[in-house]
Amino acid sequence: MEVAFYGGNFASLPESVQRGLLDPCQVYLKAGTVRSVRISTRPDSLDANRIRFLKAQRVGTVELGVQSLDNQVLKQNLRGHSAEDVERAVGLLREADMVVGIQLMLGLWGDTPDGMLRTARKTVALKPQLARIYPTLVLAGSALARLYRSGRYRPLSVVQAVRQCVEAADILEAGGVRVIRMGLQDTPGLSSGGVLAGPHHPAFGELVRSAQWNRRARLLLSERRPRMSARFYVHPSQVSKFAGQQGSNLAELKSEWNLQQASVVSDPSLLPHEVRLESS
Fold it and tell me: What pLDDT shows up at residue 7?
């Protein structure tokens, strides 16, 4: 079990408030009931003293609300921190031997697909252990909503966001950064009208993983060029993602490669990112 404090700027809270939240965790940490504590915070809220305090309170993972590593995009979106703040915070956390998470956003006002990929590459260079990728959504009543209504901001479509997320996740994971979430967790507030516009989908992460497998399957088929059948083997946790929603990936591959059969089979001996192909 893990205790996590999300949804705010934890490290900027008064130390007494932080201590009041973290102290109750200590009993459970010592007993082994709780394995670790993680927080999310702004990169510009951290300094050496605050990190020492968090470390003493047995916080093991700190996720930074980075969003972008392009200073112009950060400034345009009023993020209030710079790419240099992120680099400094990550360096301090790594010196303290803490697990570092980076939270990124697709489709920010003023960002571009190429800009997002540059941010992904810069993130890899910082060597965090974890990352989350969220598509930018226009929430009712927000400053972004006013920009959207005025025509100054145009959100990504679901298809565009999935495509960008696939490319960013591929860069991160190839660089050794584990992507632990893609897309916001669906909540009653989001699903009942809180989202004015943007690529909101309750299974956004599933769409991205499915698209990643589609790309990998195409590469394998291009190499093998089967004439009749293709049987893919993946880890049990990846079978539904590989198949796609309602088997869409398999149907697409079967049709495009003119195969008599295309299937996916569970193989526990494979790692979650591995795939094996038997073809004829």
Answer: 79
